[in-house]
Amino acid sequence: MSAPTPAVRQRAKWGSLSRALVVEAATRAVAAGGFETLTIRCLAETLGVAPMTLYRHVRGKDDLLGAVVDGMLAPIWRPRTATSDWQAWVIEAAERLRRFLVEQPAALHVYLAHPVVSAAAIERMEAILGVLRGAGLDQAGAESAYGTVHTYTIGFAALQASRLRSAPEHGAGPRERRLAAYTTRRQFIVGLRYLLEGIGRGAVATGPPPEAAPPVTD
Fold first, then answer.
1. Residue 123: pLDDT above 80?
2. Is residue 147 located within the same domain as residue 191?
3. 9, 51, 73, 175: least surrounded by Cβ within 10 Å?
C-alpha cells in the first residue's frame, strides 16, 4: 500500500492579496502568541503565496508588526473619562497604553524599537495634546508634558513586563517584596499622579492663552 500523498496548500489567486489581508493574517498569528516566531516566510506559507509576494504589500517584519500593533491599539486607546477632568483623562489614557504594552509583547517591541507614528498613535497623541492645551498649557508645554508622560508609560511597561516574565525567587525578603511592588499598576498610577501634579502647576503658571481683543468700533 502506497503512502498517502501529503496535502498541498492551495495557492492564492493572483491579485487577490492586499495589505489588509496580510496584516489580518499577521494579527491572528500575533494574537495566538506567535510574535517571536512570526516571519515573512511562515506568513507567506499561511497565505499560500511566495515570500517575495508579501513584499509588494509590506516592507518587512517591522512594517508588518507596526501595522498589526496599530490595528490593535486603535479600538482601545481612547479614555471614557470626560476631558473636563484633564488629569483623570490623561491617567486613563496612559493606563490603557501601559496595559496594552504589558499584555501584548509585540506592541512593547514596536514601541521600544522606534518612535511610533502610525495612524492610531498619532490620533492618540493629538488627542492628549488637545486635552493638555485645554488645561492651560501652551503648545510647547503640552508637547513637553506629553513626552514626559509617554516615556514614563513606556519605560514603566517595559520594566513591568520584564518582571512579570521573570520567575519569582523563592524566599524573597521584605526588601525584595517592597521593590517588586514598584512595578504594579497601583505604583504606576501613583507615579503618574506625581508627574501630573507638576504638569498642573506648570499649566497654572502659564495660564490659558489670552483672548483676542474685540475690534474697536466707532
1. yes
2. yes
3. 175
Grid look-up 493629538 returns 126
Domain span holding position 53: 19-58
102 has pLDDT over 90: yes
Asked if residue 2 is part of any domain, the answer here is no
> Do 94 and 171 fall into the same domain?
yes
**What's the pTM value of the predicted model, to 2 decimals?**
0.80
- The CA R_g of the chain, rounded to the nearest whole Å, is 23
Indicate whether 89 belongs to any domain: yes
Q: Pick from 60, 19, 65, 20: which is nearest to 41 by CA?
A: 60
Q: What cell numbers appear for 101 in the block?
A: 504594552
Distance of alpha carbon 35 from alpha carbon 175, whole angstroms: 35
Identify the sign of the CA torsion 199, 202, 206, 208: positive
Q: DSSP letter for 118, please.
A: -
Distance CA 152, CA 146 (A): 10
Q: Rounded to an integer, what distance in angstroms lies between the CA atom of residue 112 and that of residue 115?
A: 8
Alpha-carbon distance of 155 to 143, in angstroms, equals 18
Same-domain check for residues 155 and 128 = yes
Secondary-structure breakdown of the chain: helix, strand, coil percentages, each rounded to the nearest 5: 65, 0, 35
4-8: average pLDDT: 39
C-alpha cell at 107: 506592541
Backbone angles phi, psi at 207, to 5 degrees: 75, 160
Asked if 34 and 120 sit in the same domain, the reply is no
pLDDT computed for residue 35 by the predictor = 81
Report the domain count for the chain.
2
